[in-house]
Automatic annotation (TrEMBL):
Residues 146-156 have a biased composition (Low complexity). Residues 1-11, 112-123, 131-143 have a biased composition (Basic residues). Residues 1-31, 60-80, 92-186 are annotated as: Disordered. Residues 92-111 have a biased composition (Basic and acidic residues). This is Uncharacterized protein. It comes from Chlamydomonas reinhardtii.
Length: 186
């Protein structure tokens, strides 16, 4: 007895109950199907015995499906042609009018006028806001200026004339910005 034949005999005895010639599931070494249940085998046999459609029936169903797809594609293409024709007609209509068509020119002028009026109204409202702010500021300045004497204003103007880096006799304010010409003299 060869090596493989001995192994096969042990496998047979394992699945047949150990006596070597029983009626249990038998593995012939080709495929191990011992793990499947009896219900699984019954379902598999039932599945194999189901009646299937013939080639002609299947082919006719495939042709029907292809026909539906072709009809949908043809409909889509027809819609696209109609859409392009409409676009071309609109384009020709606009080009036929020309650039110096009167009613088109009027529409453009009216649009420009409307935009100008909107800009003016916005600008006027901004100007009114600025004027009201300026008038409030000037009122505040007048009140503060009326409290100070005229000698204060003359002393301020004198100190401004004396100050400067190149000029003797004056100390420059550190917060005052420097002129470019003064900086270049350094």
């Amino acid at each position: 007895m060869g090596k493989n034949q001995g192994h096969k005999q042990t496998q047979r005895s394992r699945y047949t109950g150990g006596d070597g010639g029983g009626t249990g599931d038998y593995n012939d070494g080709m495929k191990d199907v011992s793990f499947h249940t009896a219900e699984w085998h019954a379902a598999r046999i039932a599945n194999l015995t189901v009646e299937r459609i013939g080639w002609e029936e299947w082919r006719s169903k495939q042709k029907e499906a292809e026909g539906k797809l072709a009809a949908a594609a043809e409909e889509e293409e027809r819609k696209m042609r109609d859409y392009r024709a409409q676009l071309d007609a609109d384009r020709k209509k606009l080009l036929a009018r020309g650039r110096n068509h009167e009613d088109l020119a009027k529409e453009i002028k009216d649009e420009k006028k409307r935009k100008r009026k909107e800009k003016k109204s916005k600008k006027e409202s901004k100007d009114k806001d600025k004027k009201s702010k300026k008038s409030k500021k000037s009122k505040k300045r007048r009140r503060s200026d009326s409290g100070s004497s005229s000698s204060d204003s003359s002393s301020d103007s004198d100190s401004e004339g004396k100050g400067g880096e190149g000029e003797p006799g004056g100390e420059e304010d550190p917060n005052k910005p420097m002129r470019l010409s003064d900086w270049l003299k350094m």
